[in-house]
Fold:
Amino acid sequence: MKKIYPLLILLIIIVVSRLFVHLPNFVPITAIALGAGVYLGKKWAIILPLTGLFVSDLFIGFYGWPIMLSVYGSFVLIGILSWWLKKNKNVANILAMSLSSSILFFIITNFSVWAFSPWYAKDLGGLLYCFELALPFFRNTMAGDLFYTAVFFAIFELALNPDKLFKAFKISKQTA
Structure:
């Protein structure tokens, strides 16, 4: 029962972050996938992001299935990457995994947009143009992933190890 509340809170955060006004792609889904895999268990690294995407897509609307599969599939891969991160958790690896996840999402989803939409010529020039037009979204994705990953990992670490907070601010437990 203790685990259900954090799961529901994280699920609500995913859905709400997609439904309310935000910078395009500046959402916490990657951070939640990474954090869930490290702190809540392997299956939650996949179930939480996919459920959050699906529930919010019920309100936002669904789109072309090949592109939608690439988005959902990207988060499955990010969830799988979190399994490695659980065994190798440190600040550098968390940062690297957040950046790697942003790049992975960018490449997979924009390749899918190029391949399955009528918007781009189906040649190298069309592919490069698709990626060029997606760069502002990539900037937001990267910024959001880094920001939310830092916030969620800090929250998880402090919740699991409150003594770190006391040490970080040089506060003794007796004065707190």
User: Anything to note?
Assistant: The chain has a mean pLDDT of 88. The CA atoms of residues 38 and 84 lie 9 Å apart. Helices lie at 4-19, 29-39, 42-60, 65-87, 91-116, 124-160, 162-168.
